[in-house]
Specification:
The complex is a heterodimer of chains A (about 325) and B (about 100). Chain A has about 325 residues and is an alpha/beta fold. Chain A is about 55% helix and about 10% strand. The longest helix of chain A has 30 residues. Chain A is globular. The N and C termini of chain A lie far apart (about 45 Å). The chains are: A alpha/beta (about 325), B alpha+beta (about 100).
Chain lengths: ~325, ~100
């Protein structure tokens, strides 16, 4: 294992990766993979990258204006919220947020306060347009998109976590944002769950770079290890660390223990080493197969099945009646027979 | 609203926030419904300068005077450009009227 590079020194490596993945148009590939702005800001590349950086900066300003307003309004309504994903990483692990292109904001609130938070968003001009199980998408002024989460992933029972525990480990956002983000260890764990379980590894390189930066940023590895153990998230974490290692050459420091790779489920390991180059890794694996492999043991698989057949809503309620869920289960069994 | 005149005084609308990014200036709408899909508006250097003068006190003549003091442009051209720009800002509700002919 080798030491992690400090943040901001990996532009040349990323450009090399882009050249290998797409020799005919490395800059275009880098932009599509969400690392164009990072490369441009490091003084690398051409006009395509510079334009990508400019675009990311403009979009970030719009997102920042609305993030500040939304957090202040939730605070006035006494609804604690945590900033997740892109904005949280951009504000904590990049020299400038615009280095990390993003298209939306993600906030987590307690499931019991999700409806109240949705009302706060509505008062600010955000309209619900994409309801989903663990969160819902809202379209706001200036074309800004915001996802309001009541849980970190689909089928939240598979990787149980309490909002209050996340809040206890959270960090204040830099000024002028009046709110908090996930703590570093929770950010990395969430990135791993998002990449592996939520999307079956079908993500942009920028999200893998987030993982590398979080891993390089003075992380409490024993804390992370303990959280992964408690939340049964080691298969996701280890698999994403392996993908990050393969793509960017970043691996965890030795003090996490050389045995972390033992947590990678066999089907994931076979997929990782069967992939042809970076493009193959970023294309991901079949989602259902990935989720089944990443659910850690019989209990988690039972929760995955239950969550799939009887999905919840971000406010903690259930989408369908238990009878309908049972009927779905019967249909699934018949199909399997 | 009728066409803007140099005697008119405008102030920046509360539905827009202005942000400077390196050499650029953008106006970000903060009100309106999501379905409107309002865009983000880019201002050039002169546009940003005029936007920052829209304080609800200075009228168009005072602002044009500041423009000619700051940029290499004659008064007639500056007045034309100013009125065209104000009309654009009014069309996107970035400005609201604040009276006529004060603080000349």
């Amino acid at each position: 294992m080798h030491a992690l590079p400090p943040p901001g020194t990996d532009a040349e490596a990323l450009l090399g990766l882009a050249r290998r993945a797409c020799p005919s148009d490395p800059a275009g590939w880098a932009v599509r993979q969400g690392v164009g702005a990072l490369l441009a800001d490091a003084g690398t590349g051409d006009g395509t990258l510079a334009e990508s950086h400019r675009h990311a900066a403009v979009v970030w300003e719009a997102l920042a204006v609305h993030l500040e307003r939304v957090l202040a309004a939730l605070d006035r309504a006494a609804i604690p919220a945590l900033v997740l994903k892109g904005a949280a990483v951009a504000l904590s692990h990049y020299a400038r947020p615009a280095q990390r292109p993003m298209s939306d904001l993600d906030l987590l609130v307690r499931p019991a306060q999700w409806r109240g938070a949705a009302s706060v968003l509505a008062a600010l001009g955000f309209e619900l347009d994409d309801p989903a199980e663990h969160g819902a998408g809202f379209a706001g002024p200036a074309g800004v998109r915001l996802e309001l989460h009541g849980a970190l992933t689909t089928c939240p029972g598979v990787f149980p976590v309490r909002f209050d525990d996340l809040m206890a480990r959270s960090r204040a956002l830099p000024s002028p944002f009046p709110g908090r983000r996930l703590g570093d260890e929770d950010l990395l764990l969430h990135a791993a769950l998002h990449i592996a379980f939520q999307h079956g590894f079908r993500v942009r390189l920028g999200q893998v770079v987030d993982v590398a930066r979080l891993a390089a940023g003075g992380l409490g590895w024993p804390v992370l290890s303990s959280l992964a153990e408690r939340r049964r998230a080691w298969p996701c974490l280890a698999s994403v660390l392996e993908v990050t290692s393969r793509l960017i050459g970043v691996t965890p420091p030795p003090d996490i223990g050389g045995s972390w790779r033992r947590h990678i489920p066999k089907p994931v390991l076979e997929w990782v080493y069967g992939c042809d180059g970076p493009g193959g890794l970023l294309d991901g694996m079949p989602l259902a197969r990935a989720r089944w492999a990443l659910a850690d043991g019989a209990v988690c698989r039972a929760r995955l099945l239950a969550g799939t057949l009887w999905p919840g809503r971000p406010d903690g309620r259930r989408e369908v009646s238990p009878w309908k869920a049972l009927a779905r289960g019967r249909r699934l069994l018949n199909h399997l027979r | 609203m009728s066409d803007p005149a140099l005697e008119d005084v405008f102030q920046r609308s509360e539905r827009m926030v202005g942000r400077r990014i390196a050499d650029e200036y953008v106006l970000v709408p903060i009100l309106g419904r999501g379905a409107d899909a309002d865009g983000i508006f880019n201002l050039n250097r002169l546009g940003a300068f005029i936007w920052e003068q829209m304080d609800g006190r200075a009228d168009g003549r005072a602002i044009v005077e500041r423009v000619t003091d700051t940029f290499e442009v004659d008064g007639a051209r500056a007045s034309r450009d100013y009125l065209a720009f104000v009309a654009q800002l009014l069309s996107i509700e970035a400005l609201s009227p604040a009276g006529r002919g004060r603080e000349r």
